[in-house]
């Protein structure tokens, strides 16, 4: 029987590509060039499965391709706000994602940003590299202590809880959180975490705020000027979730005027574009969407897409179906 034809939109780690080509008639993207709208549409006309990733915009326009051959979008990534889910459903496409396998690495990166922003690590590194350092002195680059402070977690899903565990058990931080979905109460008890009735309550109490909610119409610009204004003056905002959860303009203003003390960002509203103002600020740590970027995790994400495809083409329910 002919193997299902699958088209991958970006280069994957070698091990995952090897497994994909063993199981499927796979077209890889060897030069890793982003696909255009027309190329994505052509993929949907030519393949049984298209495997996009979080930087591909799978819009209603893309999904209007005719005649549509694809039956499944096996997305490489946990977030799926880059796919117009309603349009995919309307076209009868199954959509899957890759949860769980990136939880630890994304949480590790949130802690990296938190520590870097608090301890001025990026600034310090630039100081050394530019040969500006003149030696130890009692008032040099004084920063913010992390141990024992209050961490506010917005969105207590898998990644939010993994960050809370690191912060609480590793750094003795007190955890306050707001979330919309139910969370395992045994985990909350083990963290001694306090649930807040609103995001605003979290913002008022926290020394550090880490965002872990998905992008959705409800969370668009959740961190706007008025909510940033509720944060403590010395507080630091960490975003490893999605760029448009934060109003970049409002954040620039809050950082410039000292409404908050700093930020650690891995995601941006218009990424890969980053607001020029951020580039010029010393109190912001900027990373290029690296949350899941370890070899172990990126291979596991590819294998997770393959698990979903294998189940789908065997006539079973894909384990990570989101639509
Ligand atoms: C995701 O998977 O949604 C991340 O943003 C990239 O790993």
Produce a short descriptive summary.
By secondary structure, the protein is an alpha/beta fold. The chain has helices spanning 14-23, 37-46, 60-63, 85-90, 103-119, 121-129, 158-171, 185-191, 199-205, 225-228, 248-256, 276-279, 295-313, and strands at residues 5-8, 25-27, 49-51, 72-74, 94-96, 150-154, 174-178, 194-195, 208-211, 236-239, 262-265, 284-286. α7 (158-171) links the parallel β6 (150-154) and β7 (174-178).
Can you walk me through this structure?
This protein has 323 residues and is of the alpha/beta class. It folds into two domains: 5-101 and 295-313, Rossmann fold; 103-286, NAD(P)-binding Rossmann-like Domain (Rossmann fold, 3-Layer(aba) Sandwich), CATH 3.40.50.720. Helix content is 37%, strand content 13%. It has helices at residues 14-23, 37-46, 60-63, 85-90, 103-119, 121-129, 158-171, 185-191, 199-205, 225-228, 248-256, 276-279, 295-313, and strands at residues 5-8, 25-27, 49-51, 72-74, 94-96, 150-154, 174-178, 194-195, 208-211, 236-239, 262-265, 284-286. It has a seven-stranded parallel β-sheet with strand order 8-7-6-9-10-11-12, with helices on both faces. Helix 1 (14-23) packs parallel to helix 13 (295-313) and helix 5 crosses helix 7. It is globular, with a radius of gyration of 21 Å.
Topology:
Elements: E1 5-8, H1 14-23, E2 25-27, H2 37-46, E3 49-51, H3 60-63, E4 72-74, H4 85-90, E5 94-96, H5 103-119, H6 121-129, E6 150-154, H7 158-171, E7 174-178, H8 185-191, E8 194-195, H9 199-205, E9 208-211, H10 225-228, E10 236-239, H11 248-256, E11 262-265, H12 276-279, E12 284-286, H13 295-313
Parallel strand pairs: 1-2, 1-3, 3-4, 4-5, 6-7, 6-9, 7-8, 9-10, 10-11, 11-12
Bound molecules: (2R)-2,3-dihydroxypropanoic acid (DGY).
């Amino acid at each position: 029987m002919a193997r299902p034809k699958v088209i991958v939109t970006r280069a994957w780690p070698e091990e995952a590509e090897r497994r994909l080509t063993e199981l499927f008639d796979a077209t890889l993207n060897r030069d890793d060039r982003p696909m255009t709208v027309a190329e994505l549409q052509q993929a949907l006309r030519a393949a049984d499965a298209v495997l996009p990733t979080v930087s591909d915009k799978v819009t209603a326009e893309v999904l209007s391709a005719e005649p549509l051959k694809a039956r499944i979008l096996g997305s490489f990534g946990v977030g799926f706000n880059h796919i117009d889910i309603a349009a995919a459903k309307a076209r009868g496409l199954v959509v899957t994602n890759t949860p769980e396998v990136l939880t630890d690495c994304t949480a590790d990166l949130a802690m990296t940003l938190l520590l870097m922003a608090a301890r001025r690590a990026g600034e310090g590194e630039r100081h050394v590299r530019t040969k500006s350092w003149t030696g130890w002195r009692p008032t040099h680059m004084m920063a913010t202590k992390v141990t024992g402070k209050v961490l506010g977690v917005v969105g207590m899903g898998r990644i939010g809880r993994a960050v809370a565990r690191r912060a609480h058990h590793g750094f003795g931080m007190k955890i306050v959180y707001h979330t919309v979905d139910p969370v395992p109460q045994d985990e909350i008890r083990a963290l001694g975490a306090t649930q807040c009735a609103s995001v605003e309550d979290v913002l008022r109490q926290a020394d550090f705020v880490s965002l872990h909610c998905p992008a959705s119409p409800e969370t668009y610009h959740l961190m706007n000027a008025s909510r940033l204004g509720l944060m403590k003056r010395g507080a630091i905002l960490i975003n490893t979730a999605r760029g448009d959860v934060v109003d970049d303009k409002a954040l620039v203003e809050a950082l410039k005027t000292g409404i908050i003390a700093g930020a650690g960002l891995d995601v941006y509203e218009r990424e890969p574009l980053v607001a020029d103002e951020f580039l010029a600020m010393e109190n912001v740590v900027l990373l290029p969407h690296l949350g899941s970027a370890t070899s172990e995790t990126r291979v596991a994400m590819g294998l997770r897409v393959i698990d979903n495809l294998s189940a789908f083409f065997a006539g079973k329910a894909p384990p990570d179906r989101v639509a």
